[in-house]
Design brief:
Length: about 100
């Protein structure tokens, strides 16, 4: 999960560019999908969740020219952020999600 701090006033442009360049991530054969969320509590804070087949394949993408190009397109909007990797240990579907 990536937490991104976006420069004030650039949020709409960031969202547009993120969607425009997203296929550089999701077209990678090891990517399962990614999601962009905007904080409901903090202005200019976004969270990107990206799901991968495994961490070694994600790390290979992370150091690729493809990823560097993706990052360069989003960099002008970013003022800070952090990244956390994690492994899902359990999943529970809610009744509204059709999992029952």
């Amino acid at each position: 999960m990536l937490r991104m701090e976006i420069r004030p006033g650039m949020e709409d442009d960031f969202e547009r560019v993120w969607q425009e360049v997203g296929d550089s991530v999701t077209d990678h054969p090891a990517n399962l999908g990614q999601w962009l969320s905007r904080s409901a509590e903090e202005n200019g804070i976004y969270y990107i969740v990206s799901d991968w087949v495994d961490e070694p394949l994600f790390r290979a993408f992370e150091t690729s020219a493809r990823h560097l190009e993706h990052r360069q397109k989003l960099h002008p909007y970013r003022s800070g952020g952090s990244m956390t990797t994690m492994h899902i240990v359990a999943s529970l579907a809610g009744s509204a999600g059709g999992g029952r």
